[in-house]
Amino acid sequence: MSKLADQGSLLPANTESADVQAIEVHNLKKSYAFKPVLRNLSLTLPHGQRMALLGANGTGKTTLLRILVGLSKAGSGTVAINGWDSRYALQEIRQSIGFVAHQPYLYEELTVLENLLFFGQLYAVPRARERAMVLLERVGMARRVNERVRALSRGQVQRVAWARALLHQPSLLLLDEPETGLDQDGSVLIDTLLAEYAAHGGSILFTTHQLERALALSDQVVIINGGKVVYQHETVDLTLTDLRQTYQGIYGGKQV
Ligand SMILES: Nc1ncnc2c1ncn2[C@@H]1O[C@H](COP(=O)(O)OP(=O)(O)OP(=O)(O)O)[C@@H](O)[C@H]1O
C-alpha cells in the first residue's frame, strides 16, 4: 500500500480480531435523578457488522452511545468494546472508537486544522497533519482548514466532526443521527464513507429516525423501548413495510 493510500485509509490495517465482539453490553442500567432510562439493556454487535438503533425520542439511544464511548457512566451492567472491559480499559476503548454525535466535540476558537492536530496529538496519530489534510479533502473541507470552527455553518462543522472521528483510524464507529445538519451532498458523502468503512471490515452502530436509512445502511436493526431491546432483526430479509409495521406496533403509530 502506498504511503498516501495508507494515510487515507479509514481503518487500521490490523483491525480487531474477528472472534471478539465489537460491542458486548449486558444488563445495562442507567437512571437520571432516579428516573430509569436504560433497564437491563443487552446488545451484541459482531465485529465487522453494521447495526441501526431505532427508538422514539427520549428512549435512551444517545445515553447508550455516551456510555459506550465512556462519556457517561452506567448505573450497573457491563460494557466491552473489542473485548476491552469499560471498567478497566477506557483509554483503549476511546482509541478504538470514532464518535459522531449531536455535539461536534470541536473547539470553536481553534481552526479546523488546529482541531484535528489537537486530536491527532491526543490519539498519537502518526503523521497527523498529512492524515488530517487527506480526511478534510474527503469531507469537502480542504479549503476551510484555516478558518475557526465558530465561523463554520452547522453542516460544515458536522463534516469536520466526521474527519475528527476518523482521524485515528478507529475500528468501531458510533454515530448518533449522523445525517443531522448535512445537505444532500453531505448525506451522499457520509453514505460513501460508511460503505467504504464497512467494506474494509469496520463495525458501525448508528441511530436514526429514518427507517429507510436504517434498512439501507445496516446488517441488522434494533428497536429499543422501555429502556431495553424489544426487537432485533437482520436486514437481509426485512422489508421497509415490515419494519414500519413493527415500529408502529411498538410505538402505537407514533411518528418516526
Ligand atoms: N444529562 C441528563 N440529565 C437528565 N436527564 C437526561 C440527561 N440526558 C438524557 N436525559 C433523559 O434521558 C432520556 C433519554 O435521553 P436520550 O438523549 O438518551 O434519548 P434519545 O433516544 O437519544 O432521544 P432522541 O431520539 O430525541 O435523540 C430522556 O428522557 C432525557 O430527558
From TrEMBL:
GO biological process: cytochrome complex assembly
This protein's UniProt keywords: ATP-binding, Cytochrome c-type biogenesis, Nucleotide-binding, Transport
Record InterPro entries: AAA+_ATPase, ABC_transporter-like_ATP-bd, ABC_transporter_ATP-binding, ABC_transptr_haem_export_CcmA, P-loop_NTPase
Limits of the ABC transporter domain: 23-251
Example of a GO MF term: ATP hydrolysis activity
Keyword Hydrolase in record: no
Keyword Nucleotide-binding: yes
Family of this protein: Belongs to the ABC transporter superfamily.
Protein name as it appears in the record: ABC transporter ATP-binding protein
